[in-house]
Write a structure and sequence with these properties.
Strand content: under 5%
Helix content: over 70%
Shape: elongated
Distance between the termini: 56 Å
């Protein structure tokens, strides 16, 4: 799909963008802000929700409900298989 020249161009552009982020003060600041934002929100969300589901969090409650129903359906299938044989 891409020729040698296109791949070479992409590599040069990628090296330029990478060097911008690694060697310039502005690029380092952007990377650090992104890393801090991603790490802080991910850890806080996981730690605050772990083992403590909120009753008003509909998405979380649906996930718990689906997880509970999966085990019930699995048990019923296994019981029906044993009853058929």
């Amino acid at each position: 799909m891409f020729g040698k020249n296109s791949m070479r161009t992409f590599a040069i552009i990628g090296a330029g963008v990478g060097s911008f982020f690694l060697f310039t003060h502005k690029g380092k600041d952007m990377l650090n802000r992104f890393k801090n934002k991603f790490n802080s929100t991910q850890k806080e969300d996981l730690l605050s929700k772990a083992g403590n589901p909120a009753p008003d969090d509909i998405g979380d409650n649906n996930m718990v409900n689906e997880g509970a129903m999966y085990s019930v359906h699995y048990y019923n299938k296994q019981r029906n298989k044993l009853a058929e044989t």
